[in-house]
């Protein structure tokens, strides 16, 4: 199993990550990725960059050698309607938008409320990835989430950091197993993301590969394996 794409990475601009843009690019090249996405936390996350950071991507190269570099964002879902802290105007400047629930940006509600928040975000036409829907702190109805993702043509993220026992999110592996089982049932697409906050983690999917191989998850449902699938999660598709 070999991922060609990692769209969930952070740099120092996110405020609690420790590598630069260049360091992430070099790490992605070393790992043999074809596409690297940088997805800094959107402005509601304490300590992250301000909106203006996302407005000057024109100065960055689209390719470094053979590696394509995409400019994304990890938006915060901040209410149970699924609204995100990224304006339409800003969405139009980005290659892709991940939407995630974070405890510092929204207080968890009931299963029905959290599920409505995630499905509401999926209905935002710019959101094509739901980040780490695997946290006991935000219990979700996986049957509904997986069906809605399929209907809205949104990919659910398999977040490698969630499989790390040191992760701030809870119950990652248990929830991911449940999620993946339903993704197989409904043929819902997933995207693997490292959620790296340090360059050595970029493109490193150790625990993810182990789990996917163990359960024999169908490769055709994984966006990262085939560059032709990439447009599924990009803003225009
Ligand atoms: Zn996140
Ligand atoms: Zn992240």
Can you give me a brief rundown of this structure?
The chain is α/β, with parallel strands linked by helices and 237 residues long. The chain contains six helices and eight strands, in the order E-H-E-E-E-H-E-H-E-H-E-H-E-H.
Q: What distinguishing features does this structure have?
A:
single chain, 237 residues, TIM Barrel, eight-stranded mixed β-sheet, 16% strand, binds zinc ion
CATH superfamily: Metal-dependent hydrolases
Number of helices: 6
Rg calc: 16 Å
Which series of helices and strands comes N to C? EHEEEHEHEHEHEH
Largest sheet: 8 strands, mixed
Distance between the termini: 26 Å
Question: For this structure, what is the CATH class?
Answer: Alpha Beta
Report the CATH topology name: TIM Barrel
- The total number of structural domains is 1
Describe the fold and architecture.
This protein is α/β, with parallel strands linked by helices and 237 residues long. The protein has a single domain, classed as Metal-dependent hydrolases (TIM Barrel), CATH 3.20.20.140. 26% of the residues lie in helices and 16% in strands. It has 6 helices and 8 strands. It has helices spanning 21-31, 88-91, 111-122, 142-152, 172-186, 206-214; strands spanning 5-6, 35-41, 63-64, 67-76, 96-100, 127-130, 155-159, 190-193. Strands 1, 2, 3, 4, 5, 6, 7 and 8 form an 8-stranded mixed sheet that branches. Strand 3 and strand 4 (67-76) form a beta hairpin. Helix 3 runs parallel beside helix 4 and helix 4 packs across helix 5. The longest helix is centred in the C-terminal third of the chain and has 15 residues, at 172-186. The protein is globular, with a radius of gyration of 16 Å. The model has no long low-confidence stretch (mean pLDDT 97). The protein binds zinc ion (2 copies). Residues 74, 100, 102, 131-132 line the site of one zinc ion.
């Amino acid at each position: 199993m070999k991922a060609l794409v990692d769209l969930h990475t952070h740099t120092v601009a996110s405020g609690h990550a420790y590598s630069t843009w260049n360091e992430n690019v070099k790490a992605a090249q070393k790992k043999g990725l074809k596409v690297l996405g940088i997805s800094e936390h959107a402005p509601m996350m304490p300590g992250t960059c301000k909106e203006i950071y996302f407005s000057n991507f024109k100065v960055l190269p689209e390719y470094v050698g053979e590696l394509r570099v995409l400019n994304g964002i990890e938006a915060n879902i901040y209410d149970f309607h699924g609204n995100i802290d990224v304006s339409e105007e800003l969405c139009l400047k980005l290659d892709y938008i991940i939407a995630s629930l974070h405890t510092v940006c929204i207080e968890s509600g009931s299963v029905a409320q959290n599920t409505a928040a995630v499905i509401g975000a999926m209905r935002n036409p710019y959101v094509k990835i739901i980040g780490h829907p695997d946290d006991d702190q935000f219990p979700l109805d996986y049957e509904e989430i997986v069906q809605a993702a399929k209907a809205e043509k949104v990919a659910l993220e398999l977040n490698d950091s969630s499989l790390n026992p040191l992760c701030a999110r809870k119950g990652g592996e248990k929830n991911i197993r449940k999620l993946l089982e339903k993704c197989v049932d409904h043929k819902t697409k997933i995207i693997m993301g490292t959620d790296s906050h340090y360059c050595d983690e970029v493109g490193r999917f150790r625990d993810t590969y182990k789990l996917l191989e163990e359960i024999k998850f169908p490769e055709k449902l994984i966006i990262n394996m085939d560059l032709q699938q990439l447009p599924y999660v990009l803003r225009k598709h």
